Amino acid sequence: MDGELSGKVAIVTGAAQGTGRAYARALAQEGATVIATSRSMKLPAPDEDFRPDTLAELGEVARKAGEDIHLIACDVSSEAQIAACVEQVIANFGRIDIVVNNAATYPEDQPVPHYDPIGFTVEEWERYNRINIIGPYLMIREVAPHMTRQKSGNIINITSGASLGVEVAAAQFGMLAYVTTKAALNRLSQFYALEFRDHDIAVNALCPGTVVTNSWRGVPKEMQDEMLASGNGKLPTPEAVGPPLLFLAKQTAQTYTGQVVLSNEFGVSWP
After folding, report:
1. Is the pLDDT confidence value at 227 over 60?
2. What range defines the domain where residue 184 resides?
């Protein structure tokens, strides 16, 4: 597909479903060659249909739509898998222009309607840190040398409004480790925006807000009710998050970098 991102190569982590899938498809529809990653491919058996919300099914949807999306199974908690993913992209496409660090772990993995605020185990903290902050750092570490050589690049870290304190009540629903690691991701983004400015690599953090995804459906009903109330009873679908991401994906270190922004404020308080 032709578009403003034609000739660009993008990596999107956590792209099998939800906002990650929407980001991957939006970039491809704007002309980018997209490498979509998730922990596993989940290929169907010979006599089975593609299972929804899998990396394999995304590939099939993209093929039918004429979108240039390629698939790599990559667990962002694995240093070796991230390095191998980036190496494979460079070997196949020769460059990396855009990275969307979307993969994250979220409380629906272990629903806790009424949690103990001092009840997180060390193992839980390590899991959140490994996926939500160390994973993005490792991806940045691997792609930065290639972007530096190109003297161009764009990194978008997907964060959360709850990390900014604008969704304070979310902490009541077992999100302590989630919002804390996302706050760390905000600071990581701002640090690298300064670090990479002279290499013309833009780094921003984007808060998609509350979106109807499988993650949203998995949170406790009390939290869903509160989210619906804050959204006047209606929440956006993943497709609505595409435009703000595309804006960020087209920026340079001279035009827009070092920002932590909310999708629902796009065109209102920013750019």
Report:
1. no
2. 9-265
Is there a domain that residue 52 lies in? yes
Residue range 42-60, pLDDT digits in tens: 888 787 888 889 999 999 9
Cis, peptide link before residue 243, omega less than 30° from 0: no
- The dihedrals phi and psi of 5, each to the nearest 5 degrees, come to -105, 15
Structural domain tally of the chain?
A: 1
| Residue 124: count of CB within 10 angstroms of its CB | 16
**Measuring CA to CA, how many Å separate 198 from each of 43, 185, 253?**
42, 21, 8
What span, in angstroms and rounded, lies between the C-alpha atoms of 179 and 187?
A: 13
User: Would residue 4 count as lying in a domain?
Assistant: no
The letter for the amino acid at 112 is: V
Q: What string of DSSP letters covers 8-77?
A: -EEEESS-SSHHHHHHHHHHHHTT-EEEEEES---PPPTTSPPPTTSHHHHHHHHHHHT--EEEEE--TT
Which candidate, 205, 162, 165, places its Cα nearest to that of 185?
Answer: 205
Dist CA 18 CA 30 (whole Å): 19
What mean pLDDT value characterizes the chain?
88
Please work out, in degrees rounded to the nearest 5, the angle formed at the alpha carbon of residue 83 by the alpha carbons of 80 and 86: 150
The CATH number of the domain where 131 resides is what? Answer: 3.40.50.720
Rounded to two decimals, the pTM is 0.89
Instruction: Please tell me the least confidently modeled range out of 30-34, 103-107, 136-140, 202-206.
Output: 103-107
Region 107-127 average pLDDT: 72
Q: How many CB atoms lie within 10 A of CB 209?
A: 23
**Backbone phi, psi, residue 228, to 5°:** -65, -40
Asked if the structure places residue 3 within a domain, the reply is no
Closest CA to 75 of 45, 105, 51, 53: 105
Residue 2 counted as domain residue? no
